[in-house]
Structures are given as structure tokens and as C-alpha cells.
Design brief:
about 80 residues, alpha+beta, 3-stranded antiparallel sheet, about 20% helix
């Protein structure tokens, strides 16, 4: 029986899991654009720590049937968007 999709706000205790998922995502994306691995063997994402210190940035993890399947990084803007 499926429990469905669950989206959870990622807290500091989830930072390591989110970092690992993000590394996999960047690795896959590197097939499309040239991205270099750092000296530490990771691609890294310098802005990631801001998602735990800047209230306009929101990190989420996604679970399906209780299993971790992905993430979402949301940046809120105070400027209104214009549709056309």
C-alpha cells in the first residue's frame, strides 16, 4: 500500500542528506554543461549553507513511501513577478 508523496522542510539534521542528493544531481547535470569537480572530489554548491541561515531560502526533501527520492530548493523573492 502506497503512503504517497511527502514533502518535508529540511532542517539542519537533513543537511548531509541534501548535500549528497545535490552532488548526484550536479553530477548528472554535468553531462549537459561543463562542470568541474573540486580538489575535494565534490562539485559543491556554495550557496547551500544559506538555506539554513537565510529565511528567504527554503530547503525541502521529498519521500515516496517513506523513502528519500529528491529535494527542492526554493528561493523566495520580495519582488512581484510579471506574467505575460
Amino acid at each position: 500500500m502506497s503512503t504517497g508523496l511527502e514533502q518535508i522542510r529540511a532542517g539542519a539534521e537533513h543537511q548531509s542528506a541534501l548535500e549528497n542528493l545535490l552532488e548526484l544531481y550536479i553530477h548528472d547535470f554535468s553531462e549537459l554543461v561543463p562542470l568541474d569537480v573540486g580538489d575535494d572530489g565534490r562539485y559543491g554548491y556554495q550557496s547551500l549553507p544559506l538555506f539554513w541561515s537565510d529565511s528567504s531560502r527554503l530547503p525541502f526533501l521529498a519521500r515516496l513511501d517513506g523513502k528519500l527520492i529528491g529535494f527542492v530548493l526554493v528561493t523566495q523573492s520580495s519582488e512581484p513577478s510579471c506574467g505575460g
